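Notes from hallway chat w/ T.B., transcribed later so I don't forget. T.B. wanted the structure written out for a chain they're using in a teaching module, and asked if we could keep both sequence and structure tokens in one place. Agreed to drop them here.
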Amino acid sequence: MAIRGLPNAYSFPEIDAWTRIANGNEQDVVIGEDYYRATSAYIDSTFFQMFDYELRGCDRRQVLTNDLDVIVSEAFARKAFAGEDAIGKQLKVRDDVYTVCGVLEDFGRRDLFVENDLFFSIKRAYDLYRSMDNFGNTMTFLTLKPGTDPQTLADKLLDKYVDYWGEFYARDGSKGAAMWGSSLTRFDKIYFDEAHESYSKVKKGNRTLVEVLLLVALILLVSACLNYVNLTVALTGKRAKEMTMRRVLGEQTRGVLFRYFSEAFLFTATCFLLGYFVAYLFKPLFEEWLSTSIPLIPDFQMVFWSVIALLLLSLISSLLPALLVLQFKPLDVVKGAFQFRSKMLFGRVFIVVQNMISMVLIAVAMTMSLQLNHLLSLPLGYRPNDLIAVSAFDLGFTFEIQDILRQRLLALPQVDAVGLAANLPYRTSFNGLHDEEGNTSWINYTSMDTTSFRLLGFKVVEQFAAPTDSMCWVDRETQSRYNISAEHPSIETRDKETNSKKARYRICGIVENYRSGMGNYVPRFEDSHNVIQLLGADGYYWSQLVKVRGDKDEALAAVRKTCKDVMRQLKGYSQELNCSYYDDSMRDALTQERHTMQFVLCFMFLSILISALGLFAMSVNYSEQHSKSIAIGKIMGASVRGSVWKLSRRFILLSLVAIVLAVPLCVKAMNYYLQDFYNRIDFPWLVILLSAIITMLVVILSILGQAIRIATRNPIEGIKTE
């Protein structure tokens, strides 16, 4: 079990044992003269009593008893100590020197925990996470005594939380509470559990994405099987004589069944091997899109289920055509009656189902494209043009040390101006405000100096006072929410000690409404509003905004080099700081949405390809079967246009039926995709019409060439075909 927050765990008799792991972020590690950037975690001394990972060099029953001990991963030990035994070696992190007391096996792709280079004692995290709260940074794992009801324990934990945190914790999210509820999650359910944030030390999966991709893949698989069965059945009349003669010559029923099964198995196995090869080629791309590792190296489990799937698909694909042939009589072969009936039934099913699938995927792909473009083009309310955002967190937080970097950047010929900031509009923090009734509203808190405010180009609407240190700008929406005016230039909150109002933010003026967060940002709290606080020389800074000119790539390279040089000068090692253009960061935030759209586009093209190839093959078979009647019709005076329509109408009419049936499915699928976006487009009804048109164009282009060929052929040749 994993839980969030566990004060005084041993006061619960239902809990048998527990241990914790906390997020340590990335660390600057110096070993001798070498510098390394390493990921880290903080763990309890009992961690390896609960998790059976291979550990050498120390007693797994009691690890990290010395606060200056550290456990390293095998991968980091190989990289940092060049094959030497890491046990007993020393490394420096910040101002502390740690001794390697153990080497831990690397976490595998199937392990729940994120890979880490260093493991420190959790006591070292006490200074980082006050009260060792468990809201994302720290996770507690526990085992329950036999007979314990998890839900009952979760309720008891919630009682403990409310008592432990006092007025900061609520039983539910009413009145704008930031901390509320509790979670108790079974270990094998954590991966898809929404209660555990992505910045914790466990891997996080997107259940919705996985389910959607699996569903679409299964639909395409069913479509491909249906296509194979349909084409096989369409050829049943031609193969009936062959199979009838084999039966006359003594082949038994199981021989016919096995013949069809072996053909389907050979075809399916070939497709499987080709599919595996294509998947292997595109594996790096798919891993990037999914932000995870995809295991394609065959193991026993993968081979076993692949063989089962292969046999099952082969059986499904071959059983129906074989049974139809076995029911066929020699007299029916001569009449050709079965060929007509099978074509009418299975051809219709394929055309309707496949075109429904194609139309739905086209509609969803177009909706995704429109939504993504909408998020990218949302008005910001400020202008981040030609601004590079530098995350200088590792440099230090004081004005003096940040100003060293700023002066070096200002000396670059590509730089026009540099402003200091802490929280930028696309990465705000949250501050709570309390009223007399105990309700909480929230501030999307942005903080920067006056230079950064000017560089971002906020449009000032009204000014009450001079924009000096600690004064704040708010937008129109915030002004309306808190009734701000020249006579009332402040946002107030309740003083906890005196239970009276006090000014929390002093307002110097109003700016036009601007957007906090990225394009896919969902407000954490419903009652949240924008505030920009101006910071002076006594403020804390960890970001810089650099206004550049000239070639953008050259300017970005110069800024990155300068940041690295300053880190070498001040810290003694060449660490690269995170530098990127502001608008690029906004686009990068939508990477997951873009990758999901690309997946659906791939599936859409596959569906259209399956549909087009199936329709083309059917049109070839259908046209050849009706070649004689078309030829006779032309001799009797039928026009080419009429002949083309006669050969095409069955496909077109069935495709129209498919489009009508697909419309409600399109609406449902499009609404399902859009519902998770806070900033979403209005429902795009025009997309359904465009999807129907594209679907019909695919049908027409797939069958028209063959229909025209038969309709324009010499009637004599048509009569000779049967």
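Follow-up for T.B.: Residues 190 and 227 are 39 Å apart (CA to CA). Might be a good example for the class.
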